[in-house]
Design a protein that fits this description.
It is a single chain. By secondary structure, the protein is mainly α. Helices cover about 35% and strands about 0% of the residues. The protein contains 2 helices and no strands. It has helices at about 1-10, 35-45. The longest helix is centred in the first third of the chain and has 11 residues, at about 1-10.
């Protein structure tokens, strides 16, 4: 609410003297929290999934010949 009033004050200011002297306050952000148990379980299972084989990539014995 205060941020809204402050922003309207800035929008309606016509002269330099009308501008507030303090900067706008930053909106509150909750601190980061640790992921929940379900999210951690899913992440652990996703990390342990079998990786697909990388077939189809050309292999060269001589690195200079490959481009």
């Amino acid at each position: 609410m205060l941020v809204d009033i402050y922003a309207r004050t800035l929008l309606n200011a016509t002269r330099h003297g009308d501008l507030p002297q303090r900067p706008l306050p930053q909106p509150y952000r909750a601190p980061r929290r640790r992921p929940g148990a379900l999210r951690r379980l899913i992440s652990a299972l996703w990390a342990r999934r079998p990786q697909p084989a990388t077939t189809g990539t050309p292999r060269c014995d001589v690195p200079v010949a490959c481009k």
